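Regression report. Comparing outputs from two consecutive submissions.

Submission 1:
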Amino acid sequence: MNIEDISTQLMYTTAPVYAFFPDNKLSTGTGFIFSVQQNEQVSIPLLITNYHVVQDAISGFVELHVSKDGIPSNEVVRAQFDNRVITEGKLGNLDLVALPIAGAINDMQNKGKQVFFKSIDVSLIPKDDAVMNLAAIESITFIGYPNSIYDSENKIPVIRQGITATPIWNSFMGKEEFLIDAGVFQGSSGSPVFIYNQGSYPAKDGIILGNRVLFVGVLSRTLQRKDDMAFLDLGIVINSSAFLRELNNYIFRMTGQAINR
């Protein structure tokens, strides 16, 4: 395993989310870890997923890898959460929730379990001018657990690709969202969506040589045909700019500090 490879690191930003409900129903989805830098020494890891995945749940957990010599192993541990943090972590009117997991990670480390994960941070979110310069059609990559499918032997998610079906710089149907044309199924809710280019990528003035990674949004739901509920291979993605705005409000409410860009 080349853990220095960017695509490998993106894979380990995600984790499967399980939520339990009063009627004994189990809901599954995808979460990803977003780290907020508080100062030079301290960052806050948050598990981000769709609110509808955990709404009204009484409890739940997320599976994280155990580190062996700095490399993720096949062993996983569970970070628990309850209804209180779900209610407190709702991000404005968006279908998103932020669940603090620092305490669970520290508890595991105190018990001798070193947790391995990679996180997304604010540096990967494109600023407004960069978003406006994106092409109408961009290749996208998203990572998650569609229909709870994942490599259960190696405990790794499924990586899928597609294209933007509506421009990222447009507000689809007046909401801070855009469409992607890709194989989107239930269970992918909460998947981080990236523009990930290797070797070269298009720009306003031509082709740029190099790699590009942008965190452009969070997959919220899939679209289905009205008559037979067949999947249309279209997914709705919440813009990362909207996510950042509401996450900043949440962080300020919790800590009194704003996210530093």
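Submission 2:
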Amino acid sequence: MKTLNIQNIIVPIDFSKMSVQAIQIAKQLARRFSASIHLAHVRQSNYTADFVAPAFMTYEQEGEQTALEELKKVASECGVSPAACDVLSGAPAFDEICRLGQTIPADLVVMPTHGRTGLKHVFLGSTAERIVQHSSCPVLVRRGNALEANNGARFRMKTILAPVDIFIDICSFAKDHDLDLIITSTHGFTGFTHVLIGRIAEQVVRHAPCSVLVVPSDPQSSEPGAISRRQGEQTG
């Protein structure tokens, strides 16, 4: 069995309270593995590739600088090196995070999920689920009782579920047994196969009452250009 080796952890930050709390989990894991923490914020670009007016580009650059300063402030307040902060520009956000993960390269992404369902999920989507789908490294999605009431200072993992097969009542089982973590994998299916399989890992992330660790099982997912290739398969 391959020994777990975590050297670089990415924490996507949208400046919400939930995303900042995820830094505390990353810090505990970083201490355990002597790993480095990288904070990343994605700014949505509001212009097309053909629109490059100098005044507008200057405005965008100032916005990036402001976001970077705010991100460094969060890093300092949370005890993370401000030097390990990245402000990314582009859309969609999940693609930028996954590309950064390949560039560093990252061994783990730690992030929360807002748990959107219904119409909110349809219109707003879920960055966490899409990162789970496309990331070349494991993704720890913080949710539920992962953080104890002590100011979110401790990441509690006392009861863990690691299903050896997919069964449709994973989330109900987790709720009934008060689990702290579900560990599952994504097979990296794309196109029609991905749709027919039902996006099990993403569904678990969306509905689970506890935190979820998703480990990619597709060896090709770590190859350069894998994200773009998968997107082409899905839209082709």
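Expected: both submissions complete independently.
Actual: both completed, but the second showed a warning that disappeared on reload.
Relevant detail on submission 2: The first helix runs from residue 17 to 33.
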